[in-house]
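target protein:
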Amino acid sequence: VPGLLQTADYTRAVVERGLPNASASEVQRRVELRMRRAQLLLREDAPQLWAVIDESVLLRVLGDRAVMRDQLDHLAKMAARPNVTLQIVPLNVSNASAPAIPVTYLRFGGLDLPDVVYLEHIRSANFLEDRDET
C-alpha cells in the first residue's frame, strides 16, 4: 500500500516488520512523518494521486485483522476523493509486472520541472531525475 494511503496502524506494522530492531521512538517518528505527508492529499489544493496496487497486497495481513479492516476502509474512502485514483491489479492477471518496491512517478504539471521517479525503501529512498531513467 503506498505510504500516502496508509493508516497509522498499518504504517506501524510495516515499519515494525521492515525494521524489527528499531526503537519504539524510531517507529513512532516514522509513523508520524508518513501521516504528515499523507495530509497533502486532504488539502484543498491536493495533488493528484494515481495508485496501482496488486490484489495480493490487500490479502496480506499486516498488524492484525482490525488493522487490515481499517486500512481497507481507508483505501475505499481515499479512492472516493476526486484527487485519488486507485486501481487494483487482480490476482488472475498473469501478464502484470509488479515491482518489488513501491515506484512513484512525480509529474509537476505546469511547472518547468523534470519528471521524477521516487523509489521507496524501508531504510532509504532513491530519486531518479535523468530523463532516460524516468
